[in-house]
Amino acid sequence: MSDTLELSQRAITATETILQKYGVDGEKAGAGFIAEVLETLAANELLTFGFSDPLQTGPQPGDMEKACTVIRLLAERSGTLATIYMVAGLLGPLCLSYAGTVAQKKALLPRVAAGELQLAFALTEPGAGSDAAGITTQATRWDDHYVVRGEKIYITGAATADLILTVARTTEGGAKSYGILLVPGGAEGLSVEPLSKLSGNAYPSCRVMFEEVLVSESGVLGGEAGVNSAWPQLRKTGTLERLIVAAMACGFADAATNRALQFVQERHQFGQPLRDFQAIQHTVVEMSTLATGMRLFLEDAIRQHAEGHDATQAISMAKYFCSDQLQKVVAMAARVMGGRAYFDFEPVSRLYREAPFCLYAGGTIEVQKMLIARSLGI
Q: Rounded to an integer, what distance in angstroms lies between the CA atom of residue 210 and that of residue 101?
């Protein structure tokens, strides 16, 4: 318990330091905003979980509980910060930890842990989102290099990434033969176009074009053995991404519920506190109940993963339930706030814009239902 409290305090300290300077959405962000966010997280030892250890493979006991604790606290305060942490501080290093060679991990993971290396993960394509098996980006062997051709879209962090972990179909394998290539952010033939989003534009999501981009043999994650073997690693990382998104959703729901509670305590209408109106009471009770249910789903998924069980079903259920119920929680918060929720100065308006992210990140609700059905044998 003391470890969790100490970790929580470090996360809060890091968040407050950044928000005081840049604002909740990073609206005051300059060119060095993302780098400073990662440096601040690193200074508070929030990028040093077990999967940042070059001698380990994948998360160690307690790592995902810690990661989910941090991202919940960040999301409660800023979706932008939570997304930076998720992409560059969790998903990127998790992928390196699972799939990289020892030499690659020794070269890269300490720099991630120090906040010195920005990573992005490029999987989604215009014609292949949840259907990851449908990707068409290709990496073709040419002498001692690979030539990468294709297009990725909605790639968060690509505009400033030092390395873009790019999933590409290899020509040497079968239907599910993919490699993950470490494409330098400034590579010749690489073009990155930021796309305007509903929220979080201080950390852009981008269209990424690969036009004859050369990547050396050493830039294949996992080395020669990794050329056609990315699929199992993608499944592992994808499962943990769903867990992380569920935790983010819980942070958003906590923020919406706490803000509604604060507002009904302060606001008066028709000569009495808003909290005395039964309709308002019922709305806030429903919000609190849903937020508690989301947290319980998340905790069960974390527990099953920590105990070494096949947590696919529990994690998909948590991701499905938390992201879906979050939309209801923020909508109810907006109704409690009345017209105020329509304006940018009200925190609930930010949450209303940020909440839909959880519906899609880590796979849509419909994909989660497919995974759950498969786990049930139907």
A: 25
